[in-house]
Amino acid sequence: MKRLLDRHRLVRALACVAWLLPAAASAQVLCVWDPMGAQGDGYNTMKDYVISARGWGPGVNITLKPYTDERVATEDFKAGQCDGALITGLRARQFNQFVGSIDSVGSIPSYTHMRDVVDLLANPKLSSLMINGNYEIAGAVPIGAGYFFVNDRSINTLAKAAGKKIAVFDWDKSQAEMVKMVGAQPVSADITTFGGKFNNNQVDIIVAPIFAYKPMELYKGLGTKGGIARFPVIQITFQLVLNKDKFPAGFGQKSRQYIAAQVPRFFGLIRNTEREVDSKYWMHVPLADRGGYEKIMRELRIHLTKSGFYDPRMMTLLKRVRCKREPDAAECALKDE
Questions:
Q1: Can you tell me the distance from the alpha carbon of 121 to that of 260, in angstroms, rounded to the nearest whole number?
Q2: Which end of the chain, N or C, is less surrounded by CB atoms within 10 Å?
Q3: What stretches of 95-187 show up as alpha helix (H) in DSSP?
Q4: Which of the listed CATH numbers 3.30.70.1130, 3.40.190.170, 3.30.1490.20, 1.10.10.10 matches domain 13-333?
């Protein structure tokens, strides 16, 4: 009898250990895309994230996995080889159209507006919109404005872009749609190839953040005649997409609040990178011309929203952000966005 009782106690003890082991041994893997791999600023920033995340719930033990190819990082995440992925908002749109629509043409005109948007994403009132099925957006990291890089400074208006070749990502159909609307010719590319196509004169124009300037050697494509129009076309973000079932309850909200608190650091990195560009390349768009550009980008947003590329709820929210900063802007009296 004593032996039987001892065996029951042993079985119960082993069952308890087995129940505890997954929580103690579980580790989440984050696929981190950075053009510079494990040497890049994005990857190194995530190291600090991992340390902070340990206190956001039981069983959080994150390992980072660097990728230099964003497509592979995304596909590995979808295949379950990673529990989360840090990828561009353009690719993250497939997991959450609401948050993915942040990276929309002309919708966030400055870094001040971008600060407001990241704060809104961290508001618990919007937490339900961060979730789509098993996917949760655990934060949007600003990485800088997307600017027009042109191989000839004479291409200084949208009208002069007509007929020119512009690189577009083949997996983001909204880009090709935009290019066609301004009368230009879309040329299929990917993040790994668009810089080379610009440098080799296969395209005349690309839209890129300054963080791509050095790694992709875009100064080669600029040459002696090219320039960078200092007018934000879009605000580009990295977005952290999670398989929410792999993380404890409430983790995503704590993550969004942490990322919002880090925004001054991100903007510091962006401004330092932009200061490293040779001043001869910057093209300043005259104030008188800006209204025309904003009108065209607004028309593009409305068209792309009606076509299903952008989430109308995010478009409404971003308009509120713009009108809060500039209540006298012409768009604020209109009801079509």
A1: 8
A2: N
A3: 97-100, 111-121, 173-181
A4: 3.40.190.170
The pTM (predicted TM-score) of the whole model is 0.86
- Cβ distance 282 to 228 under 8 Å? yes
CA-CA-CA-CA torsion sign (259, 172, 144, 117):
negative
Residue 43 CB neighbours (<10 A): 20
Between CA 323 and CA 330 the distance in angstroms is 9
Query: CA separation (Å) from 193 to 69, 93, 243, 265, 292?
Result: 11, 21, 29, 29, 31
Q: What is the spatial distance between Cα 181 and Cα 307, in angstroms, rounded to a whole number?
A: 13
CA distances from 236 to 87, 110, 228, 260 (A): 11, 12, 16, 15
Q: Answer for the pair 276, 282: CB distance below 8 angstroms, yes or no.
A: no
Q: What is the pLDDT of residues 113-161, one digit of tens each?
A: 999 999 999 999 999 999 999 999 999 999 999 999 999 999 987 788 8
Of the candidates 74, 112, 115, 81, the residue with the CA atom closest to the CA atom of residue 95: 74
Taking alpha carbons only, the member of 48, 51, 46 closest to residue 239 is 46
